[in-house]
Design brief:
Layout: E1 2-3, H1 5-8, H2 14-22, E2 27-30, H3 44-57, E3 60-64, H4 80-84, E4 88-93, E5 105-108, H5 114-125, H6 130-141, H7 144-170, E6 176-178, E7 186-189, H8 196-205, E8 225-228, H9 235-251
Parallel strand pairs: 1-6, 2-3, 3-4
Antiparallel strand pairs: 4-5, 6-7, 7-8
Bound molecules: pyridoxal-5'-phosphate (PLP).
Pyridoxal-5'-phosphate binds next to loops.
């Protein structure tokens, strides 16, 4: 059963939020659009709420925007950087949209932060992939990236729709999933009695790999499932993998 992401994915509770802020962090790392691994996007009220909370506690924000430029049928929402200005350091990446092995991204930051960021980057990677960066810069200058994103979006929309249709058709009762409306992944929520570790091993023997999401939660996971990376596989491959998954779930 497809459900709205907001219904399935419970929000960070007031208690967890208070505990996190009590540790006096200097930076909050957030993925407000199409969060990895849940696919969840903050509502407008949550975007404003998080800005206000961080302003109140003097916490800067790092916005990891890996997916807002992959919008299928979801509602457009502004980036936190657009709402919070200087309070937000914005990063985006070409990994999911151009070539995974590029590992090149870009930052929107206030001019006074740039020297520090450049120094930190030098220190952390001890050198830049300057030739690749120059090629990507040329690609952008010529306007190829915008054209590329449009054709990519058409392909992504087809995969998203095909994945939802296959889930609708194949999944047994009790299995739920989100309709994130964009980004490259959605979240599949399984009944609590399904043993995720055993399922992962069973599927791996059939060449279907799922990634264990337990490290993505602070404390015990409030969700019981994993993400489906519908952007990654062709429609036929995805349907094949979901058929194997559905058979395993029906037998468990
Ligand atoms: C949340 C998130 N942000 C950014 C990226 C891209 O990282 P990079 O540019 O280092 O490849 C990924 C890659 O999977 C991701 O999951």
């Amino acid at each position: 059963m497809a459900v709205g992401a907001g219904i399935l994915l419970s929000r960070i509770s007031g208690l967890v939020r208070e505990r996190a802020l009590a540790a006096r962090p200097s930076l909050a790392y957030l993925i407000p659009s199409f969060h990895n691994p849940t696919g969840y996007s903050y509502t407008s009220a949550e975007l404003h709420g998080v800005l206000e909370l961080c302003r109140k506690h003097g916490v800067a924000i790092l916005e990891d925007d890996w997916g807002s430029d992959m919008l299928s049928d979801g509602e457009y929402r502004p980036m936190l950087r657009m709402l919070g200005g200087k309070q937000v350091l914005y990063v985006n990446s070409f990994t999911k949209k151009l070539l995974p092995s590029l590992r090149i991204g870009f930052v929107a930051a206030s001019p006074e932060l740039v020297p520090t960021l450049v120094a930190m980057k030098r220190l952390s990677v001890l050198g830049n992939a300057w030739l690749t960066e120059a090629v990507v810069a040329e690609f952008l200058d010529r306007g190829y990236y915008d054209t590329h994103l449009q054709s990519l979006q058409r392909a992504l929309d087809l995969r998203y729709a095909a994945c939802l249709a296959a889930l609708d058709e194949l999944m047994p009762d009790g299995v739920r999933w989100t309709r994130p409306g964009g980004g490259p992944t959605l979240w599949l929520e399984l009944p609590r009695e399904v043993d995720l570790v055993a399922l992962e091993a069973h599927l791996a023997r059939r060449s279907v790999l799922i990634s264990n999401a337990s490290a993505s939660f602070v404390g015990p996971a409030h969700l019981h499932g994993f993400r489906i990376a519908y952007a990654y596989l062709s429609e036929t491959e995805m349907r094949g993998a979901l058929t194997i998954l559905a058979d395993a779930l029906k037998r468990s």
